[in-house]
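Here's what a typical entry looks like (Capsule assembly Wzi family protein):
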Amino acid sequence: MRLLLPCLFLVSSCFSQTLKPLRYQTEVGSYLSSSGQNPFWLRTNQYGIVPMDHSTLTLRHAMHVDYHDAPKSKRDSLQALNRRVDWGWRAEAVLNAGYSVRLLIPEAYAKVRLGSVEIWAGRRREVIGLVDTTLTSGSYSMSGNALPMLKFQISIPEYTPRKGLFAIKGFYAHGWFEIDRFVKNTRLHQKAIYMRLGKPHWRLKLYGGINHQVMWGGTTTQLPNTRIKNNLLPSTFRDYLDVVSASSLGNRSNVDTNRISQFDRENRIGNHLGTVDLGFEYVAHSYSIFAYRQSIYEDGSLFHLTNLRDGLNGVRIRNLRPLKPRGLQIESVLFEYLYTENQGGSLFIDNSEQQRGRDNYFNHSQYQDGWSRYGMTLGTPFITPSDNSRNDLPRYGFSNNNRVAVMHIGLSGHVHGFFHFQAKASFSENLGTYEVPFPQAVRQFSGILSISTMLPVLNGLTVNTAIATDMGKLYPNTVGYYLGIRKDGQSRKKVDH
């Protein structure tokens, strides 16, 4: 991260003379809860910036220079045609003060666009997978629930060719987990490819794709010899190729047993997980429908079709009518169902294709901090860290609760064109894990109502309010509140291009 800020200034000094806006956003606010713990939906899918305990004060400031705006005149269009390279950057800091004071950097990155290809480095907010990003319960693999990773990524961020019948987008990335983990210096490999069938103006478009995440490499002195050799997990370039290709070492005869542990020889190098996604979008005159399915893989169960019941299913209906100046107008409605209780079944028999269950989502025998960052789940937040649940529930691994069924509803809209609201309600059944199940099914309700409005003072201030609640046996029963005031603005100045 020491190199990141100099890189930002280097990027902004590499080009010559154009006018681009420097945009900024400042927000000050406060959290309050009846139990001292912020409710689930007040802190979830916020990229790790909302603490578990309520904060007396939160202060956030962000600045960014983005790519050039879309052409608005013939002159702009000509300049855009001649512009082969574009660039931008963003940095954000969050200060939370309550029982303790903590400074967070959720975003700090520089990006360069070369035609349809984008390269960026740093920390950046992301959601991975086919999903509605606004009202969702959380994309399975990467939901935006934890502090963004430090990464270097090359991607095609938009479907290309834009007007083609068949278009693709995707990315390839290398990243680093935080140092203070059970396995130190853990690395991240990520890639994804998604396809669209149908031209942008067609009423019906089909989507499909796959994403792949791997935790790999690192050192630890806390694992037995059957799980690690010489306190070092495989981390050579050859090992990296096996990580990228997700190759199994089980059928190889030339594996170096002085370097590769029995656990890695019988499995794959690293902790692999992801989803295979399918979806469609239908656009009518006054509404659109987007439906999607994320099928989970973390072991061989999906390959053998034994965990097909598990996955995230969603349908979003969006209102395409113009905004009404009066009355209530619904903008979007979302229905989701998340199911992870199967995991290929309750039995794991190594030589049986149909009984290789107990996938134990987001837990791992080597990377015992699980699929997490700073103790927060990277994927769907409904697979909860053990220390987030009630004290009377059994503890196990990173997550003591990865067998869940969730009904989720999201709603957004406007009132009199002045108030914008968003509501989420989630009903979950929680069974614990196959290894350490809960004594009985634990049921939980979590909900939130958020309202924002712009005030005509100081050239526009936005007031953000939220009320959230948890009721059930998974989390402490609580009601929480948020009140914040945000100022957005921009300044135009000469920057180098």
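The helical segments are 4-11, 40-43, 74-82, 237-245, 262-266.

More examples are in the samples folder.
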